[in-house]
Structure formats: structure tokens, C-alpha cells
Amino acid sequence: MSLAGRKTGAVYAYLFLAPACLLLIVFRVVPAVSAIGHSVTSWDGVTPAVYIGLDNFRELVRDGVFWTALKNNLVLVLAVPVWVLVSLLLALPLHQEVPAWKFFRTAFFLPSVLSPVIIGTLFTALLRHDGPVNHGLELVGLGRVARDWLGDPAAALPTLTMVILWGVFGEGVIVFLAGLAAVPQEIFEAARLDGAKGWVYLRHIVIPSLRHVIEFWGVNLVVWSFTSLFAFVYVMTGGGPGYATMLVEYQLYLQAFEANRMGYACALGTALFLMVFGLILLQVRLMAEKED
Amino acid sequence: MAGRSAEHRTGRHRSIRWGRVPTVLALVGISATTIYPLLFMLLTALKGRKEYLFNRYGLPNEATLENFYNAWVHAKVGHYAVNSSIVVATAVVLGWVVCSLAAYALSHLRFPGRRAIFLAIIGSMMIAPQVILIPLYSMLISLGLLNQHAGLILVYVTLSIPFGTYLLTSYFRGIPAEMVEAAQVDGANHLQILRRVMVPIARPALVTLGIFNFLWMWNELLFALLILQDDSVRTLMVGVANLRGQYTTNIPLLSAGLFLAATPVLVVFLIFQTQITKGMTMGAVK
After folding, report:
1. Quick check: pTM over 0.95?
2. What does the domain layout of chain A look like in residue ranges?
3. Chain A interface disruption, residue of B8, B27, B43, B237, most A CBs within 10 A
4. Of A7, B81, B84, B183, whose CB has the highest number of CB atoms within 10 Å?
5. Claim to verify: residue B88 and residue B192 sit in the same structural domain
6. Which of residues 192-231 of B touch A (CB under 8 A)?
7. Residue span of the structural domain in which B21 resides
């Protein structure tokens, strides 16, 4: 290409990038900087913010609800390996193309396209004290286990975790199926000929050859568990009973839009940002690695 | 690839493998847990309110479409669906335009700072949506975009830029530079090259991106809840989330509303399953 051609190329390039960059700056970067700025203020969103130094963060450290929310978030993070393993275990037989595997693949993926609003509302109806789940338990003689699954303080968080797993495991299956298809199939054939089975097969053949995909999906789910569960909580429990299912992102929403404590909510947001930042950095690095 | 080895394998073993029976039964059981809730939703929606009281789990004796009508008209699901369609259709189209422009520059044009801009666009994903929520909200108020579809559309387009640009840039990179040069020799400018060369070739990637954006935008709650508070502009998921409060005791009507709200994504899913799975596995496997 001629020098002149290259120059017009650069002009075009900046013009073409302008809409994307402008939108990102106005609606993502500026608000992020503003959020961090407002985290050191007392602000109701209407009257001007007042600088109060680190008071919000001091309050945060002493805020019992925040620690409960953080603990609940960590419970969800601890559930991530289970979520990953469930998807992986279900992907294996599908990869080996058991009868009707295409049907199973579709069935597993089905919940992943549904909105958390729909999943949440549906399961609230299914899990009610007089709902089908409890009726089913009574039918098989497990009536003693029956309870108001989302209203019982001890059961609410595990139940929420299960519903979220229901919503997301199929996506993991699809990711692992793609991962399995990308591995040279001779590895699996050879392992099978050597008689590798069960745990040994999983531990020494499958997991090592899928290491990157497992890493990718695991990090994805951890980030997701910190930042994408608002709708589930909003629809199903509202953070309750008590604070049994309160999550950091939901507390942020309540502080900002129910209590009008925008400054404090910005401090919560900043804390959330710092927690997730490292994780997303890892995620982006994994994506960029693939790009090179 | 899996497909090839499959033909190979089924060619060799036509007999039933009994060892697989427990596995398949387990898979059937798990499929039942994903399909039954949706079936329950549909069957309940087809029952009258009275019938639901004594016949909760069976097939409806007298199937009625009354609930669908009531949900669509009285619970305003139809009205919300129109709002959702306006927002999502506009945001999907704008997403295509904004991301393909950026992706073309990042894949086929040479300019200082290319790699830095690429990384910055992808890196903006590091800012979780909740973090920007509050300043964004007050900014939209001051721009007069609260309770305006345009406000939500701009937010959705912005949120879709990192992944969309990533996906299209990867795809455009696979298109040979010679095709761009040949078009330049023919006197086409870059906008024409993008429209006449890139877009037709990259149609699969654009379809994937469009479906992907459609799905999450149609399903999104948090931003829709905050930006569109007025009932006249509300989107479907916000409307459905409110239905839940209004019709707690009328489960058949609630089910009908849910089913109507889920129908578009279920239809898109059944038609475009391959494209969806391709888009989803983009970042994981290459």
C-alpha cells in the first residue's frame, strides 16, 4: 500500500473506532471513575455530594450486612467447582455420543437461554410450600424434608445455588463439548484401549487435556457469581429471609435505590470492583492469549 | 472432529452397548428436570383458575387460552413485549454497526495504537456493570434519557461492544488482506469495502452476534428496571417481574405471562442453536 493510502487508512481507522470508543468512554469509563469518586462522599443522588473521606469504607468494614453478603458470595464461589464438575461429567457421555446425545444437548442447554426473571419466577412457584416439589417429596415418602425452600433461612441459600446451577450448567456442557472436540481424539482412544476408567480417566486424561477450558469456564463462573445474580435474588428472595441470600451486588442496589444512600453504595461498588478486577483481568488474559 | 469419529464409530458398532444404560438413564433424568418445569408452566397456563385448584399436575381437562389472552391484554404483556422489541431490535442493529466498524479498523487498517485500543476495548469488560450503575443512572437523568427507550438502548449497545468487537475482529482477521487490496484497486473506499466485502463474508459471525445480543438484551433486568421506570415504557422482564407481585395467587395467569415472555427466546434457541453454541464457545476454544 502507498504511503498516502496508509494515511487515509489511519483516518478511516479512527473514524471507525470513534462510535465504539465514545460510547465506552461516556457510558462505562466516566461512570466508573465517578463511582470511585463518589465512594468518598455522602450523596443521596439529588443534592450535591459531600466529601466525607473514608467514612463509607470505615462503615463498610463494620457493616454486618456487608459481611453476611460477602460470606454468601463466597459460598457461591465455593459452589463453582461443583458447577464445573457437573457440566464436565455431563459433557463426557455426550462427547462419546451416547444414544440421543443431540436431544440431551438441547435439553441441557434449554435453561441457559431463559431470563433469570423467568427461571426465578417459575422456581418460586415450584418451590412454594404447597408447590410441586414438596408434593413430589410427599409422594415418595420424604414429606419430612418438605419445606418452604426459599423461605427457610437454612435452606434458602443452598436452594438459590441449585436454581442457579439449573440455569447455567447447560452452558458449561456446551463449552466442554467444544473443548473435548478440540482435543486430538487419539488421546481418548488410547486411554480407553489402556483400560483407563472412571476417576483415573477423568483425573489423568480428561482434566489435563481440558485444563485451559476448565480454567476459562471456572473464572467465568466466579466473575459471574459476583456480578450477574441480581435478577435471581430480586425475583426469588429479595435477599431474605433475613439476610440469608443477600449478595454484595444486591446490597448495593438496596443501598442506592431503596435507601437513597448513593455514596455508600458507590463504596460498595468500589469494593466489588476491586474484588472482581483481578478475576476479570485473568479472564481477559485468557482471552487475549487465544488471540495471539 | 467429533462428527467424523462418530460416523466412524457407529459404523463399527451397531449393537447396543448395555454398559451405557445407567448413563443414559441418568441423562434422561436430568433432561426431565430441565424440561418438566417448562412443561409445568405451559400446562398450568392452559388451565382455568378453578381447574388448577384440583388438577395441579395433570393435563388440562378443558384447555383454555383465556390466561394467554388475559396476560397479553390485562396484564399488559403485549404492551411490554412491544417495548422490549423496540429496545432490543434497535440495540441489536446499532451493535452490529458499531462493532463491525471497530472490528474492521482493528483487523484490516494500520494505525498507531491499534493493539492498545483493542486491549482497551476488551479490557473495559473489567468494569462490572453494578459498579457504574449509580453514576450512570444520575447521568441518564441529567441527559434527559431516564424513562426513554433511547437511554436503555445506548446502555445495551455499550455493554455489547467488548464481546461484539472481539468476536467480529477475530472473524475479520480470517478474511485475506488481498481481498481488501483488490477492492481498493477497484476504487472502493473503506466503508464500501466493509459493506460489500466484509459484511457478506462475515455473515455467520454477524448472525451469531445478533442472536447473542438479542438473547441477553431480551432477558436483562437490572438496567431495564432502573432506566425504564414508567409503566408506559417498561420492557417485558420488568413487567413480568412485577406480575409476580400482582398475581401471586393466580398461578395460571402468571404461567401464561411467563410462557409468552419466554416464547421469543425459545423459538430463537430452537432455530439457531448451532450459532448460539458457536458464539458461546468462542472465548473458550479456538
Report:
1. no
2. 64-291
3. B27
4. B84
5. yes
6. 194, 215, 218-222, 225-226
7. 16-70
pLDDT tens by residue, chain B, 286 residues: 344 444 444 444 445 677 778 889 999 999 999 999 999 899 999 988 778 877 777 788 888 888 899 889 888 999 999 999 999 999 999 999 999 999 999 999 988 999 999 999 988 887 888 889 999 999 999 999 999 999 999 999 999 999 999 999 999 999 999 998 899 898 889 999 999 999 999 998 999 899 999 999 999 999 999 999 999 999 999 999 988 777 777 888 999 999 999 999 999 999 988 888 777 776 555 4
Which amino acid is residue B77, in one-letter code?
Answer: V
Measured CA to CA, the distance from residue B84 to residue B126 in angstroms comes to 27
Residues B23 and B135 in one domain: no
Residue B258 in any domain: the answer is no
> Which of A114, A165, A248, A261 to mutate to probe the B interface, most B CBs <10 Å?
A114
Domain-embedded: residue B33: yes
Distance CA A132, CA A124 (A): 11
Q: Closest Cα partner for B98 from A27, A50, A167? A: A27
CA distance A94 to chain B (A): 9
CATH topology of domain A64-291: MetI-like fold (1.10.3720)
CB contact under 8 A, A181 and B132: no
Cβ pair A157, A148 in contact under 8 A: no
What chain A residue is nearest to B58 in terms of C-alpha separation?
Answer: A132
Residue window 110-169, chain A: list those with CB within 8 Å of chain B. 110-111, 113-118, 121-126, 132, 135, 166
Phi and psi dihedrals of A51, rounded to 5? -70, 125
Question: Running DSSP on this structure, what letter comes out for residue A48?
Answer: P
Say yes or no for a CB contact (<8 Å) between A9 and B138: no
Asked if B24 and B133 sit in the same domain, the reply is no
